[in-house]
Design goal:
heterotrimer, A mainly alpha (319), B mainly alpha (316), C alpha/beta (323), A: mainly alpha, MetI-like fold, C: 323 residues, Rossmann fold, 4-stranded antiparallel sheet, 12 strands
């Protein structure tokens, strides 16, 4: 087991190296430079030239890549040209917002999906099962960004129940009041994400429970007269819980990829919005760092889920 | 062989025509036909299919009669005209451009890109999955590593970076860029089915009958997973509508002056539009929802029909 | 010269393990077997499931990657792909599969299934191809309406006939029949076997008949090889195997043939238990210290058995005394 995990991690290393190279070259290939627009338009071209040289932008690409990697290992991702502050600090503050939203959404997703999956499996083939199947299906089919916009329109603007921008209100005081304000700001995107992201967990749980229902140990328990409620609670649900928990990894990577849309719609200052802004400012250092971070988070999320699943579910094995 | 066959069988060349005519009379409908018959029996699905096809034809043809550059000219006089005024059926946007016409051209563009993306990415994904699943060993291993790598890439971000690098992109380059990132789901599905299909004896029988590998893949195995292919392609089509519109919404899909359902929805980014001028973005949003739901509904019924014909023993 | 000569054939599957996925061990599905198949005869290959008999059959038809050893046909070693190609090997060597349903592509019509080897090897024009298919159907006892039907519309026995028709389509010299009837009902089994025999007479085909059922093999085969754990334990004519079995494994298999005569049920059972008793007691005498069979030693010109020299002599002697 440990060997397979270790091997998986070893295979990840070349993947990350190729990704970093790819990202670096793509960022280099982007047109424009970060200075022309940002400094005084009347600035002397010689001064611009000096700035470019200072930042090593005239070196050959492999030299620049090497410098970048060396700095990377010292925990230095460079400076953001746009914000004039270290990328690590910039992303650090944004990452907290993004991850906080992703974790919150995942928790809410489980709150909705677990009862639905159990209920559907309990009434397999009957009306509740069909309704839940149609619900998960419909929510899965609609592009999520459309839901976000309609959601923010109805609940944010028309009804005014939720804030429509930012991560915290300007008037929030310290301590509890700030935490409450933060929670209030992620409530709507979290609920929408959870309501429309149930399909995987519900369907996996449903099939898992139906399998368990037909298994011998449940039949034995039933024939011994264990009440049906206890069977579900103590036997079926408990056995199905870990594989379901494993979906958290996949779920968080999915949410990260969706964060570009969520954060744009809600003007929520996370990594996704930072990426969109950095693209328009050609802020290479931030762009490369973000793509790399998202790639690594994708890897880790999938790895986490794969490991949990392969431990608890012998049908799924790491190749 | 011929003499010995003639010696032991009472059938000779003279009977050929009569017998093959008799056999034709007894011919069994192909499984594609059985699936189609099952599908036809589902009335709501037929209605959905007819509506989708009619709608697509309508926007394709109607868009031909709309002069897009002229439509996209700014007309200050009709700034955010309300629906029904000044001959604007669905009103006008901030630039005084008619929403209804933009909706038609935008739907044409978005559906066209989704179709192109579906054709390219599904073809590629299907071939990738079939080849990777059929040849196990080193080929499969290598192809799986590429797959893993692609899965790690943050797709939306990569597409945005590529779009900003390519200076003069249009619908076709955009479709190609999307295709690079959207074949993995299909390929994984097809690979796992091909793996189990390759172990069946009819593949071994085809090998001993002297049929080559690629012919086995595409004319023996592929027909056996055809219902899966149809269902997956339909569902991908529904999903792919969201891909282009999503990126256009973020501002990295089609260029600003080419209308798409996504650029129309992007009108909602302006707080004034989203609250007061709902007609600038809501019709496009609703259209996307309806399109995605009806296409995937058709896909679901195709799946059910395929399962039903499987119960009859005709399909795989 | 024999039609096909198998020499020291080995098929090993690697077991990968450890950190770098190195090959650390292997499953020896077929572990050094040799026998010859003569033209026009039916050669029986018998063993329990997992003994490697199917793997042997697949190697002979060219479906399995062989680890070492050779299979000679027309003076060439067909374990090499290039030789199979240059000989058009599968034109001459075909296969009948155990599972008739899975061996016929469910999406193809019967005409296309039977014509497949013809299209690849003989390139006939359309009409003569169709005529050939019709004649083949006639020979295996199916009507012409089968032409445009799909495999699932036939019964198991009929499907197996279609499989046979496909196998004989190119008039091969050898057909590997891998448990061709074990998935069929008893009543249908005899039917299919009889007409396999009929076809053999008419087209002068050799069979490599793979089965776990010594009863069926007795009906079909002139020469028989008994396989156990990837090795041959006994080779001989039908008479050698059925009337003078020497290896304990062969005796066990023979004892396991179901007895149809009910009145002797008790006696039969007692005999089976006796053989089982001997097997348990003398197992280490018949197998080497790794539990594998010994190399074959010749007893008579037709009969070989996998025993240590001394034991073989002793048993041969006992046999003569008994006779």
């Amino acid at each position: 087991m440990w060997k397979t995990i270790l091997r998986r991690i070893l295979i990840m290393i070349p993947e990350v190296i190729i990704l970093s190279l790819l990202v670096f070259l793509l960022a280099k290939a982007m047109p424009g430079d970060p200075f022309t627009g940002s400094i005084n338009p009347k600035a002397d071209p010689a001064q611009l030239h000096h700035l470019m040289k200072m930042n090593g932008l005239y070196d050959p690409w492999y030299q620049q890549y090497w410098n970048w990697v060396v700095h990377l290992f010292h925990g230095d991702l460079g400076n953001s040209y746009q914000y004039q502050e270290p990328v690590t600090r910039l992303i650090g503050s944004r990452a907290v917002n993004t991850l906080w939203l992703a974790v919150f959404t995942t928790i809410l997703t489980y709150c909705f999906a677990l009862p639905m999956g159990m209920y559907a499996a309990k009434h397999e083939g009957k009306l509740p099962d069909s309704i839940i199947r149609i619900y998960t299906y419909v929510t899965y089919c609609i592009p999520f960004f459309v839901i976000l916009i309609i959601g923010v329109w109805i609940f944010g603007y028309v009804l005014g129940w939720f804030p429509t921008t930012g991560s915290i209100s300007a008037t929030a005081g310290p301590g509890f009041s700030s935490a409450a304000s933060r929670l209030y700001h992620i409530l709507l995107p979290g609920i929408l994400g959870a309501l429309f992201g149930t399909v995987n967990v519900v369907q996996y749980l449903r099939s898992e429970v139906i399998d368990a229902k037909r298994s011998d140990y449940v039949r034995t328990a039933r024939s011994k007269g264990v009440p049906s409620k206890d069977i579900y609670r103590h036997h079926i649900f408990r056995n199905s819980l870990l594989p379901i928990a494993a979906f958290a990894g996949y779920s968080i990577t999915g949410l990260l990829n969706g964060s570009l849309f969520t954060e744009t719609v809600f003007s929520y200052p996370g990594m996704g919005l930072l990426f969109i802004n950095s693209i328009s400012y050609r802020d290479y250092t931030v762009i490369t760092a973000l793509v790399l971070i998202y790639g690594i988070l994708n890897l880790l999320g999938t790895l986490l889920s794969d490991i949990i699943l392969s431990i608890v579910d012998p049908r799924i094995r790491i190749e | 062989m011929e003499e010995s066959l003639n010696r032991h069988s009472k059938i000779s060349a003279a009977d050929l025509e009569r017998l093959s005519k008799e056999a034709k009379g007894e011919a069994t409908p192909s499984s594609a036909r059985i699936v189609w018959n099952e599908f036809k029996a589902d009335k709501p699905a037929m209605v959905a299919l007819v509506i989708i096809v009619a709608f697509i034809l309508f926007v394709m043809i109607a868009a031909l009669f709309i002069d897009t550059p002229k439509m996209m000219e700014t007309d200050i006089m009709n700034y955010n005209a309300a629906p029904g005024t000044n001959g604007f059926i669905l009103g006008a946007d901030t630039g005084g451009r008619p929403i209804f016409q933009q909706l038609i051209v935008g739907a044409r563009n978005s559906i066209g890109i989704a179709m192109g993306l579906t054709v390219i990415s599904s073809t590629f994904g299907i071939c990738w999955g079939l080849i990777s699943g059929y040849f196990n060993g080193l080929i499969d291993w290598g192809m799986q590593r590429v797959y893993d790598f692609m899965m790690m890439l943050p797709m939306t971000m990569m597409i945005i970076v590529l779009v900003t690098i390519i200076k003069n992109y249009n619908a076709i380059t955009l479709t190609l860029i999307f295709s690079v990132f959207y074949w993995e789901g299909t390929s994984r599905l097809i690979r796992s089915r091909t793996l189990s299909e390759s172990e069946k004896d009819y593949v071994a029988a085809a090998k001993t009958s002297g049929t080559g590998n690629f012919k086995i893949i595409f004319s023996e195995i592929m027909p056996n997973i055809s219902s899966l292919l149809i269902v997956d392609t339909t569902l991908s089509f529904a999903e792919n509508i969201g891909v282009e519109t999503g990126l256009s919404y973020l501002g990295f899909g089609l260029p600003m002056h080419t209308p798409s359902l996504g650029t129309l929805i992007a009108n909602a980014n302006d707080p004034n539009n989203i609250t007061q001028y709902w007609w600038t973005w809501l019709p496009a949003a609703l259209l996307i929802i309806i399109l995605c739901l009806s296409i995937s509904y058709v896909g679901q019924v195709v799946r059910r029909s395929a399962d039903a014909s499987q119960r009859q023993g005709a399909a795989d | 010269m024999s039609l096909v000569e198998i020499k020291n054939l080995k098929v090993h599957y690697p077991i990968r393990s450890g950190f770098f996925n190195r090959i650390t061990d292997s499953v020896n599905a077929v572990d050094g077997i040799s026998f010859n198949i003569e033209a026009g005869e039916t050669y029986g290959l018998v063993g329990e499931s997992g003994s490697g008999k199917s793997t042997t059959g697949k190697s002979v038809v060219g479906l399995e990657k062989v680890t070492s050893g050779s299979i000679m046909y027309k003076g060439k070693d067909i374990t090499k792909k290039a030789n199979r190609k240059s000989l058009d090997y599968n034109h001459d060597v075909q296969m009948i599969f155990q599972d008739s349903l899975s061996s016929l592509n469910p999406r193809k019509r019967i005409e296309d299934i039977i014509a497949e080897p013809l299209r690849n090897f003989e390139h006939l024009d359309k009409d003569s191809e169709k005529l050939r298919v019709l004649q083949l159907l006639d020979i295996v006892g199916l009507d012409a309406d089968a032409l445009y039907k799909y495999p699932h519309q036939f019964s198991g026995g009929q499907r197996q006939r279609i499989g046979v028709a496909r196998a004989v389509a190119t008039n091969p010299k050898l057909i590997i029949a891998d448990e061709p009837v074990s998935a069929l009902d008893l009543s249908v089994q005899a039917q299919v076997l009889n007409f396999m025999k009929k076809i053999q007479r008419e087209f002068n085909i050799s069979y490599l008949f793979i089965s776990h059922d010594l009863g069926v093999v007795r009906h079909m085969c002139n020469n028989i090889a008994i396989m156990n754990n990837g090795r041959l334990v006994e080779i001989g004519t039908r008479d050698d195997i059925y009337n003078h079995p020497m290896h304990i494994y062969t005796k066990r298999l023979l004892a396991a043939i179901p007895e149809t005569n009910v009145s002797q049920r008790a006696e039969h059972r007692a005999q089976r238990l006796a053989v089982e008793e001997v097997y348990r007691e003398q197992q280490d005498k018949y197998y080497d210290k790794d539990g594998l069979a010994y190399p074959l030693v010749q007893i008579t010109p037709t009969h070989s058995v996998a025993l240590p020299e001394a034991l073989a002599e002793q048993l041969k002697h006992e046999g003569e005394v008994q006779a």
